[in-house]
# Entry
Amino acid sequence: MQGVGTDNEGILVLGATNIPWVLDAAIRRRFEKRIYIPLPEEHARLYMFKLHLGNTPHMLSEDDLKQLAKKTSGYSGADISIVVRDALMQPVRKVQSATHFRKVQGPSRTDPNVILDDLLTPCSPGCPGAFEMTWVDVPGDKLFEPPVSMSDMLRSLATSKPTVNDEDMVKLDKFKEDFGQEG
# Structure
């Protein structure tokens, strides 16, 4: 970075790391400001859940999302992304493992404004109207994947742990005290 040029106007060099304690003194000197950005707070985690869900069909209420944000203290943005991506796969897993399907009403894949009443969605064998079949027997245009539910999110959350541990947090706090600034 030293001697990049004589006219550095308009040039910003930005670096980021999750392990700043491995940086040597020479590189720390070249970055004049070191700003510590903590793990996301609850309101930020709530926003991240909404962002990662996007327009995916789901049955999550605002209270459900707030509960998820509360349960994910210590999770990074990447950790939350993993939880949501795994939860988004739960309906696919339900379809693939289903032994019974039932007819439901829902939007057509070709025209969401058209409501069809002969779509097929996975269900338990004892569900009224259930008939035995596997997903390979369901025509592609008739498959209605169940929307993501709170139980899908909780199942994913149970298997996805935060990647930043207490030991790393202690090291980050020490680095911030020694060399950094609050964000």
User: Anything to note?
Assistant: Strands lie at 35-36, 100-107, 115-123, 131-132, 181-182. The helical segments are 25-30, 42-53, 62-71, 77-97, 150-159, 166-179. The first strand starts at residue 35 and ends at 36. The first helix runs from residue 25 to 30.
